[in-house]
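S2.1 Query sequence (HTH deoR-type domain-containing protein)
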Amino acid sequence: MFIKQKSQEISLALVKVSVYIRRADFRQRLERLAFQLLEDTASRDFERALSTTDIIWALVTLGKTIYEIEPINAKILLQELDSLNAAIRQSAGLEGLPDLGTVFSKLPVVVEKEAISGNKSDVDSGNDDICLRVGMDNGNGNGNNNGINGTIRQSAIIEKIRQSGKIALKDILAAFPDVSERTLRYDLQKLCNQAILERIGNGGPASFYVFRS
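Output structure tokens follow.
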């Protein structure tokens, strides 16, 4: 059960991270391996699953080095991959006495920090805002069914814009009622800074966002 849950968490995180990868070939490889990991663990092909985790580990490390994956995301992914790898080895009888520390699914403890003032650096905002937890809190810090955090929340915003072509700020606020307006504005600004979105308007409720050409 742990292996299945952990592989699902890692695969979801890989797909979400891939949204922001600029190099198409690298993005496609990571997405393909995310699904491959699910297939390997679901079929209990542990030998192949170990090989898949090793490849993902290497690609994530490379992604961090070439600035395609945020360092904090890479750190979380590598930790989770190590945990899954150890659990697979134990389940397959490849190690001796079990280490109970690797048996229980642990959510990485990462605190999302909103911009406190206009002086917060772009580097800080880029690293602090992204969190890959699958059991998530919302932008107000209160966990519930709408707890979409960091990368996953921004991915949801991108998907809404992809479906409609453009979306007004007021509609984004309505779509995430349990997330503060400040947090959503911060998400939108981050996506604009990454040249993914473009804001049309003065930033008020009537402003809307489109994909940057």
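The CA atoms of residues 116 and 168 lie 25 Å apart. The beta strands are 166-168, 197-200, 208-211.
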